[in-house]
Request: fold
Amino acid sequence: MSTRPRIARTVPALRRAMEPFARATVALVPTMGALHDGHIALVRQARKRARRVVVSIFVNPTQFAPNEDFGSYPRTFNSDLKALAAEKVELVWAPTAQVMYPEGFATKIDPQGAAKVGLEDTFRPHFFSGVATVVAKLFTQVRPDCALFGEKDYQQLRVVTAMARDLDLGVKVIGIPTVREKDGLAMSSRNAYLTEHERKMAPVLYRTLKASAKAIKQGETIERVLEQGRAHIEQAGFALDYLEARNAGTLAKVQSLKDGPLRLLVAAKIGKTRLIDNIAI
Ligand code: AMP
Reply:
């Protein structure tokens, strides 16, 4: 039987729980819960890189717009704890919104650069300031040596990496490859929203990314490949937000393979569910 992780819900409780970690290296895995094998891959990498692993579970209200799914976002705290116990995680940082944003909270980080390139930021204008602010708080609360983020949220990974560097937060941000279902669909807590039919269609995104990346690598014109990919995704029943090839480091627009290394990124809605994915070219 694995022991249940200790749960800290206030900053003083977190500090107390971390006292025994004082001389050890600490890795933080920030999550919004509803844990799946993608999150667990981050936990396992964290374990390899540090003596102590802290997992945060916090559904951050400030990164959701009023019309988004904050209210319905899956919350599965008890099964999350079981999954983390199986990974021998000792400490879960699970503050309430009141602890994170007490009455009078009035500070916001407004990231630039990769946060303003016309991808997620166009469709979710609240998102990156919400993410940057909460991640900065998680870093200063937990004070980890490193923090693990998934490439699944590629623009987020770039934004958080830049923030940690720009603000000298002293945390090494490490990106972890996307964990996928057998049919290629990127694991996501939001996959739980998909109907049976939508779930069958969902891998079209990854298949299109792969086919497009291959065609671009073979020298086909990027814009022509993307036009075909966009049409394919829309024909499969998605409402497409974007399918774009960008510089993998800056996320700046690109004309050709010479502007690389390149990353191919997609976001599309099927029914009520918005899915994102990306791969290297
Ligand atoms: P979330 O709980 O969705 O905010 O995700 C927490 C962390 O897990 C983020 O760094 C995500 O990028 C990462 N993550 C989510 N899905 C996956 C996946 N399929 N593979 C790898 N990492 C993931």
